[in-house]
Amino acid sequence: MYTERASRLTGAVVWTKTPAGAGARGVLPDGCMDLLWSEGRLLVAGPDTRAYVPEGPDRIWAGIRFFPGTAPALLGVPALELRDLRVESADLWPAARVRRLLDRIEAAADPAAALEDIALDLAARAADPDPLLRRLVERLDEGRPVSATAAELGIAVRTLHRRCLSAFGYGPKTLARILRLQRALKLARSGLPYAETAIRAGYADQPHLAREVRELAGRPLGELLGGG
Question: Could you tell me the pTM of the whole model?
Fold first, then answer.
């Protein structure tokens, strides 16, 4: 079973997942990075460009999902280095620091809440989030073209691409595709017909939507929505 709630850290989401007996389910690309805890392990989930299917038996997980583009400044690692990866925190931070964090999480009644507190501590020590990145996410999530968005933000497309690699792990065009996928899933889950979902989310037509869902999510839209 999966549950989530808004975090006290702006734009972040705190979540937990417990085994539901249905096997591992793919995690869809969403433009985000997560700090994860699972049964004594502390990991960082990098930005995905395709559906990620966990290996091994289903486990208890807790996490905090950061607003797109904000995690690298908090975690101290460029997003590009973690793209499509789940990395042990001990490979990123000193072992003593990781041990202290794990002790803090495992002593807490709620591991997810402990992760949230850790994220808030990280944010308190980091520089303020780059407002340009948030505006970029907002514009692309509205369906604006990358070139027009770069012009609105007063930044060259090549410069924007470099900054996106560090903040998101991929360029602005890939980010736009992933945000469009998430818009489409939200619309389709509301009961909107697929053809109308495609147009409103920014696809050329329903077949275009179907191709993008298969490429990014690895499954047909109907299977995603049906939970199969």
Answer: 0.93
